[in-house]
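User: Please predict the structure of the protein below. I'd like the answer in structure-token form so I can feed it into my own downstream comparison script.

Assistant: Understood. Taking the following sequence of 163 residues as input:
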Amino acid sequence: MAVTALLLSSTMLPVQAAPLPPPEGEVLLRVMGNIEHPNVDGELQLDLDQLMTLSPHVIETATPWTEGVGRFEGPLFRAVLEAAGAEGERVRVASLNEYEIEIPFSDLHDYDVILAVMRDGEPIAVRDLGPVLVLYPFDEHPELLNETIRHRSVWHVGTVDVQ
């Protein structure tokens, strides 16, 4: 477990000295579990502005669920975990409709997986897979177009539980 945490932390931003302040806007994501930097009731709660300030990243890709190539923006998943002070081997991602899947930290180390919150310059609406979407860089890495990764590409993400 310590080796995995070390591998992940070596690819992330420096550990924050203090937790982020509580969100001022609507909470889009709650990070819980084995974290050291909560900001509200033992969780790291993040709004759109906070998410977009954590290592913003752009992926231009087609997905199995959308038409054509889209321009998706959001923080690197590993940067969100770093902001939370996460330690573990995997995360359990849960959607607003209660779909859950585990994602190993190795995915977040090996690929620039983002928590997409914007598509083509607009916030992603719930009816369009939002407000948060786990997105792998499919066009950069065609090997990711497989059943396992499709299941890990969670839409309507509400919580991330670090384990």
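That's the full token string. The chain is about 20% helix and 30% strand.
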